[in-house]
Specification:
Chain A is α+β, with helices and mostly antiparallel strands. Chain A has helices spanning about 10-20, 35-40, 75-80, 80-85, 90-95, 100-105, 110-115, 120-125, 165-170, 190-195, 270-275, 280-285, 300-315; strands at about 5-10, 25-30, 45-50, 60, 65-70, 175-180, 185-190, 210-220, 225-230, 240-250, 255-260. Chain A has a five-stranded antiparallel sheet with strand order 4-5-8-6-7. A three-stranded parallel sheet of chain A has the order 1-3-2, with helices on one face. In chain A, helix 5 packs antiparallel against helix 9 and helix 12 (about 280-285) packs across helix 13 (about 300-315). Chain B contains 16 helices and 33 strands. Chain B has a seven-stranded mixed sheet with strand order 4-6-2-14-11-12-13. In chain B, strands 8, 9, 10, 15, 16 and 17 form a six-stranded mixed sheet that branches. In chain B, a hairpin with a 5-residue loop joins strand 29 (about 585-595) and strand 30 (about 605-615). Classes of the chains: A alpha+beta, B alpha+beta.
Chain lengths: ~325, ~725
């Protein structure tokens, strides 16, 4: 861990200003991912801006009938919120499928979106990794790739995004609210928040330097039968091989996002439109451009089968 | 004390304390965090400095240059120890690779430097400032590719080849036969407590507080590596947070702490970080195993052959996966072969039930496959091929062999009769299957010594260098002394894990419980003699009970014998050739119910049961903990544990606990453990054997067989992850 300086800030604007002053800084909230990465020298910020004191820990109704989730709402609290449980069941299910109770108590909504890949080559600083050290190459390609992306990857990076929550946020069409260092605010649709790796895999999200997430907003409830199915090697405390977030309406329409298959939660309008045609119609569209490896080709039939099971359950 | 004739009635048979399910005497210390583990010994030496280890970034080759100037100049840094400046560093008898590498590199994450600094953070940061240039060379990292180059190899206690009768002829002519190949992956010990040590020099004397299973071996090996006399090393390891074989040896933490302390003239503490442990230390090596079994149509084995291939660094040993096949089932024509290839992966070595654990993973699937070919119930097939004598040497019997009773009891208690043909049982979204396997693990014994003291308050203190690696050694040793001296448990103090104490058998190979308590038995016999002599009693009629020594007409408090001066007795149990004349082994039967998700092929355990016949159970509570722990480890082996090899760079990629998955609570269902009531007078005066490793032997195969029963799919490559089932699963509903 590189020595670093540390400050606490009292408002989002202060957070953004502090970030503007120190381009070598990172925000720290729950720290459940950042501290691990700092210990391994994968992240080496010279300065930490502690945002835990900000009053961003509320979940409030929006005038549009949705919910505005403060950036610092802990995963445990978000999963347990009665409105979330009632109207956004896929989100509660996804949250509870992730990490462990202890981690969820600490991890925040914004931090969850910003967690970094679990690619083992990203985690080993002896290995080339374009995400960790731009331009150094990708050791995962041609290596052990059972966990890696099957779609949307590039020659520079085949990592996946590890979050469960983000997959549910994607299927719910959440919006990310931010403030920039100069104080300007903006909203980013979740679909545009996470990026595909392309030739700049070190850039995980649409956030600009120093830009700070203040909230994540859910649109008004869409109803339907809401599911999150996480498939993994052990029954708890493991990252998804494949996960399925799905909302199925009584009329047979619905939406589907997949986790564990790409650099971001994987959803397509064309695939949603095919949901009445069954799982294979959906995954055929989601995986039209898939390029799996020998180690992870199983994710394609696995996602289809998991979705098939979810749809069967949704339709009773 | 020589043990060379079968045990007769002795004070242990009273079973007032021994055989009782008493709580761990060290339980309170552990649950309150007061048990001092090695890295936490802030109290033992003042002014401790912190060491941090740098591991090699390549698997094989040479360091061409190493620049430590920036690291040395970093804040707080006291020393940077490398092979270049460490002086002459040798290699222990039990190590294949050197613990401090450079300039030659033998495996990935081999330690090449230790940075010592005033704080842990300073040491860790400075380590990252060391610049190393390497000249990598080509290595062999793929067991399957190296298999054909493998050579016959002996294990520690086994031959490279065994042959009885005419295996090839008998197999060729057998009416029913199986020829199948199975693989087991490299596995990590993944114990909770990392390897950790604190070293302090006083002149030329070294004290090392560490986490180690075998005090005497490791005292010797640390001295040998440092090039100093063994009696200059004092090694202390009273508590061990899990070892599973990974701490049988001296590892880099201990050596580097000693070198760092020598360089800085301060006590130095070193723990291996979790991401370093998997490649820096040792692991259970992967195997490829070929099983050939031939049988008559009525299910009598006529030919059984088991060949195993594994790989290791030069100087390393093979995984002896065929040993149980020499002895477990009858059959006149037999063959085993153990082959070893050179691999440049980290060193392979012992992990819980080395040999039998992976060997039974293969053999017991093969037995299930044969039973299926024969249309025989797998329990019945094993019963038909039971043997009461060593099948290679029919004149040699087992001291105790109640495999059939284990199988029958288990089948009865588990409800085995309800088992259906494959794919027949469905429960909601789950395909449900039952599977079973035999359990077998040898029960070796080793010389073990102890010292026993009696003081004026009637407290009995036991000292032996035996270790408690979470197994319950403290408690069963206290029970032994309490039984022998006729005192309640709270009047016994047990001191373990210190090289200044008499040399015990240590913790390994499931020999620890039986051997170490027998050593305490021997010492207590001597102490009883001293007490009787001191009190002027007739030795033949004295009884020790309720804190008193009783003879025909008198009852004297035990403490009286030590009123003037503490009484001290020391002895060792030394085993004669009883274990050669008859085969000492432990037996069991595993039964498992699994559910396999019809859509995703995820496997979840629903029930587990084991019946163990393992001699006298010294403490049913701690023994049960050992067995359920090993069943859990076997479940990991069956379903998830695999050190994934990057065959280009030559290392285990998933080198942390997020990547190397071991079972969590949610993976493990109710586990039932049944011990058959057994004593084995051939084993020791305790008439015990061991259970710490029996429980892992066979359980993975029972799970594999249950998966087959649920799905009809036979997977022969462990771990049985869902990707190996998916293609053959029925289409989802």
């Amino acid at each position: 861990m590189k020595p670093f300086t540390y400050e606490r800030v009292g408002s989002p604007a202060e957070a953004a200003e502090a970030a503007a002053r120190r381009p070598d800084a990172r925000f720290i909230a729950g720290g459940t991912n950042l501290l691990d990465l700092m210990k391994l020298q994968i992240e080496a910020p010279a300065h930490l801006i502690d945002v835990n004191g900000l009053a961003l820990d509320k979940i409030e109704a929006t005038p549009e009938g949705g919910l505005r989730i403060g950036a610092l709402v802990r995963n445990t609290d978000l999963a347990a919120d009665p409105r979330v449980r009632r109207d956004y069941g896929v989100l509660t299910r996804a949250l509870l499928a992730g990490a462990s109770g202890q981690l969820r108590n600490r991890a925040t909504t914004a931090g969850n979106l910003l967690q970094r890949t679990r690619c083992p080559y990203f985690y080993d600083t002896n290995m080339a990794c374009n995400k960790r050290r731009p331009g150094s190459g990708c050791s995962a390609i041609g290596g052990v790739t059972r966990q890696h992306a099957v779609v949307g990857a590039s020659d520079a990076c085949i990592a996946t995004h590890p979050s469960d929550m983000a997959v549910a946020m994607r299927v719910l069409d959440a919006t990310v609210e931010t403030v920039k260092p100069q104080g300007a605010t903006r909203t980013v649709p979740i679909a545009e928040f996470h990026r595909l790796p392309g030739d700049t895999p070190h850039v995980d999200s649409a956030l600009e330097a120093g830009e700070f997430i203040t909230a994540v907003t859910l649109p008004k409830p869409v109803g339907g039968s809401q599911h999150y199915r996480k498939v993994r090697d052990r029954a708890s405390y493991a990252f998804a091989l494949v996960s399925v977030a799905a909302i199925v309406q009584p009329d047979g329409s619905g939406r589907v996002a997949l986790g564990g298959v790409a650099h971001k939660p994987w959803r397509m309008e064309a695939a949603d439109a095919a949901i009445a045609g069954g799982a294979s119609a959906v995954t055929a569209r989601l995986f039209a451009e898939a390029k799996p490896t020998e180690h992870n080709a199983f994710k394609l039939p696995l996602a289809e089968r998991a979705l098939s099971s979810v749809l069967a359950e949704a339709r009773g | 004390m020589k043990f060379d004739t079968p045990a007769t009635i002795n004070p242990i048979d009273q079973l007032k304390v021994i055989g009782q399910p008493v709580d761990r005497i060290d339980g309170r210390l552990k649950t309150t965090g007061a048990a001092p583990y090695a890295y936490e010994r802030h109290d033992v030496a003042p002014n401790q400095a912190y060491g941090h280890v740098l591991g090699s970034a390549i698997a094989k080759g040479r360091i061409t240059s190493m620049d430590v100037t920036e690291a040395e100049a970093a804040p707080g840094v006291l020393a940077v120890v490398t092979a270049e400046n460490a002086g002459k560093v040798g290699k222990g008898k039990f190590n294949a690779a050197r613990l401090l590498g450079g300039p030659e590199i033998e495996h990935y994450h081999q330690a090449i430097a230790l940075v010592v600094a005033g704080t842990f953070e300073q040491a860790r940061h400075a380590t990252s400032l060391i610049r190393v240039n390497y000249a990598p060379s080509k290595g062999a990292f793929d067991l399957a590719a190296a298999k054909d180059s493998a050579k016959p190899a002996q294990g520690t206690n086994s031959e490279a080849d065994s042959k009885v009768g005419d295996f090839e002829g008998a197999f060729a002519s057998a009416p029913v036969k199986l020829d199948a190949t199975y693989t087991t992956p490299d596995q990590g010990h993944a114990m909770m407590e990392p390897h950790a040590s604190i070293a302090a020099w006083e002149g030329d004397k070294l004290t090392i507080w560490t986490s180690n299973q075998m005090i005497d071996w490791s005292t010797g090996d640390l001295a040998k590596t440092l090039g100093i006399s063994k009696d200059l090393v004092h090694l202390v390891s009273p508590f061990v947070g899990g070892g599973f074989g990974g701490k049988l040896w001296v590892r880099a933490d201990a050596l580097l702490a000693a070198l760092g302390a020598r360089a800085t003239k301060r006590p130095v503490k070193v723990a291996l970080t979790r991401p370093l442990m998997f490649n820096n230390t040792v692991h259970r090596p992967a195997t490829i195993q070929r099983l050939r079994i031939g049988a008559t149509r009525d299910g009598k084995i006529t030919a059984i052959g088991h060949e195993s291939w594994s790989g290791n660094l030069p100087g390393g040993k093979p995984e002896t996966a065929v040993n149980q096949t020499r002895i477990l089932y009858a059959g006149p024509h037999r063959l085993t072969a153990t082959r070893l290839a050179f691999l440049d992966l980290p060193e392979g070595n012992a992990m819980r039930a080395p040999g039998e654990a992976p060997g039974m993973m293969a053999l017991e699937i093969a037995m299930d496959e044969m039973a299926e070919k024969l249309s025989l119930d797998p329990v019945e097939f094993r019963i038909r091929n039971d043997t009461q004598v060593d099948p290679e040497k029919p004149g040699r019997k087992f001291s105790q062999r109640r495999l059939v009773e284990c199988l029958r009891t288990g089948a009865e208690r588990f409800g085995w009769a309800a088992r259906k043909e494959p794919k027949a049982v469905r429960d909601g979204r789950w395909l449900v299957g039952l599977g079973m396997a035999a359990a077998y693990r040898a029960a070796p014994v080793n010389k073990s010594a102890a010292r026993v003291r009696l003081d004026a308050s009637g407290v009995v203190t036991v000292e032996t260098d035996m270790t408690d690696i979470g197994t319950g050694s403290y408690t069963i040793i206290a029970q032994t002394a309490a039984e022998m001296m006729g005192v309640p448990l709270h009047k016994v103090v047990v001191r373990l894990g210190d090289s200044s104490y008499p040399v015990s058998a240590g913790s390994g190979g499931q020999w620890g419980a039986n051997s170490a308590t027998s050593g305490v038995y021997a010492a207590c016999i001597k102490l009883r003699e001293a007490v009787v002599a001191k009190l002027g009693l007739n030795a033949s009629e004295a009884r020790f009970a309720d804190g008193q020594v009783l003879s025909a007409h008198r009852a004297i408090a035990l403490s009286e014998a030590a009123r003037d001066r503490e009484l001290v007795a020391e002895d060792a149990i030394e085993f004669g050739d009883l274990a050669k004349k008859s085969q000492l082994a432990t037996f069991g039967a595993h039964f498992v119910e699994v559910g396999v998700d019809t859509a995703t092929a995820e496997v979840r355990l629903r029930r587990m049961l084991v019946v163990c016949a393992a001699g006298r159970i010294l403490n049913p509570k701690s023994a049960r903990s050992q067995v359920i722990g090993s069943m859990t480890m076997g479940a990991g082996a069956a379903l998830m544990e695999e050190l994934a090899v990057d065959r280009r760079h030559g290392f285990f990629v998933n080198h942390d606990l997020a990547g190397y998955e071991v079972p969590v609570h949610a993976d493990i269902p109710h586990q039932e453990v049944i011990f058959l009531d057994e004593t084995d007078p051939m084993s020791s005066p305790m008439k015990a054997k061991g259970v710490g490793e029996l429980g892992i032997c066979g359980v993975a195969a029972a799970i594999a067989n249950a998966i087959h029963n649920a799905t009809g799919i036979r997977v022969r490559e462990y771990p049985i992850t869902l990707d190996k089932l998916l293609n053959a699963m029925p289409a989802p509903a």
